[in-house]
Design brief:
alpha+beta, Alpha-Beta Plaits, four-stranded antiparallel sheet
Length: 86
């Protein structure tokens, strides 16, 4: 289970054709990227980011979006706190 103090997000990337491996390799160099994969479907690459704050997440996402050959991205921020269903 994720720590309540962690900010977790998934960044999905549309890549230039044939450049997916280069993007994944570059993403994996970032210590806050815990996982990065090439995927099939509407997106070419997905990575999981785990960091300490929304401000840090913003900085990381902006950095990863500037990786060469990234054409477009979408970020999904995970709800990591307790979920009470009433």
């Amino acid at each position: 289970m994720a720590s309540k103090n962690k900010t977790i997000a998934y960044l999905m990337v549309l890549a230039d054709t044939g450049k997916e491996y280069e993007i994944v390799q570059k993403m994996r160099e970032n210590p806050e990227v815990s996982e990065a994969y090439i995927v099939y479907g509407a997106w070419d690459v997905i990575c999981k980011i785990e960091t300490d704050s929304m401000a840090k997440l913003n900085s990381i996402v902006l950095e990863l979006r500037r990786v060469p050959y990234v054409k477009r991205s979408m970020t999904l921020i995970a709800l990591t706190g307790d979920i009470n269903i009433s």
